[in-house]
Amino acid sequence: MRLDLETGELARVQRELQRLITTPREDAPAHARAARAIGCAHERVAIYRGMYRLRLAREVAREFPATRALLGPARFDAEARAFAAAHPSTSFTLDAYARAFPEHVRRAGAAPAELARLERELASVRAASSRAKGAQRARTRAATGAAPRLVAAPGARAVDFSHDVDAALARFERREAVCSPRRRASQLALFRVGARAARLRVARREAPLLAALLNGDPLELAVALAVAAGLAPRAIGRALERWVRAGLLIAG
Question: Using an 8 Å Cβ cutoff, are 150 and 137 in contact?
Fold first, then answer.
């Protein structure tokens, strides 16, 4: 087929080929229309479709290595392929392509759905912007004479889980066998240190203090909320010291 670049024929053929590759094979009418539009046989397109979905499935595996270790390669790869078949990429990059995979795992009834959610949250933290905004806020406060605050690290967030996914991920990081997380309500503080995503466990009584600081509230208000929640002054001091030392909070 000769393509007329002047009239956009190449762009049309590219769109139809993309439709053939990303549309499920079961949708026979759509495939037939696209194939007729570019004069291409299903067998030829099958090669591209297989490579395309394999690439997407590999991206899922790259982002969820601990979940793969827990599920096992065979079960995980089957779920990754099913996800890729149902979620063709809508972007020219694969950044955050697999953000909906934890929900897919949950719907599939696989045990480690929360572990997948933790891995996705950590990937989002790694992609967070630099410290520049926090540093600028600190300089602004200093110039205006505003009260100093503890500025949250890039990507900082507090995430609740109903299972002890931190322990499961720690086992994977130590290259030990990954067991199904035991049911235990927990909260993790996730944040970026350099290019690395870090995490800390947060005690239940520490949660109001951290929530206020992550919200940008003044230290005095955050401490008052913590005291009202039953956290002793000495425990508040220990929590603040631990969070600053780890890089979760930055004095500004």
Answer: no
Number of residues in the chain: 252
| CB atoms near residue 190 (< 10 Å) | 22
Helix (H) or strand (E) holding 193: strand 183-193
On the 0-12 / 13-18 / 19+ scale of CB atoms within 10 A, 145 is exposed
Report whether 215 contacts 159 (CB < 8 A).
no
What pLDDT score does 88 carry? Answer: 78
The CA distance from 175 to 76, in Å, is 18
Sheet of 183-193, strand order: 157-163, 183-193, 196-202
d(C-alpha 190, C-alpha 243), whole Å:
11
Q: Is the pLDDT of residue 19 over 70?
A: no
